[in-house]
Amino acid sequence: MFKNKNEGKNNLCGEKIRALRLSHPSKLSQRALADKMQLIGIDVDKNAIQRIECGKRFVTDIELKAFATVFGVGVEELV
């Protein structure tokens, strides 16, 4: 079976999402970020945010675009 060669991580954006969340003016919690994502139609919960940030969960292109929208950055900045 093929193993990811990205240090065992399943996404490239998790660390950047965490950094943006913590540097947000209101220091968003994982739950608050999940709430913001749900407000724009992306069904993720706090546990999904935690798994994304530590690289254990894949991120879809739709979710990536939504994260970029929430943080007011381009998709390219997340990867």
Task: Describe this structure as you would to a colleague.
The chain is built from five helices and no strands. The longest helix is centred in the last third of the chain and has 11 residues, at 61-71. The radius of gyration is 12 Å and the shape is globular. 54% of the residues lie in helices and 0% in strands. α2 (30-39) packs across α3 (46-53). The termini are far apart. The chain has helices spanning 14-23, 30-39, 46-53, 61-71, 75-78. It has 79 residues and is mainly alpha-helical.
Q: How much beta, percentage-wise?
A: under 5%
Number of strands: 0
Query: In which range does the helix fraction lie?
Result: 40-55%
What is the molecular shape?
globular
H-E string? HHHHH
Structural class label: mainly alpha
- Largest pleated sheet: none
Low-confidence spans:
none
Number of helices: 5
Give the C-alpha Rg: 12 Å
- What's the pLDDT, averaged over the residues? 92
The CA-CA distance between the termini, in Å, is 25 Å
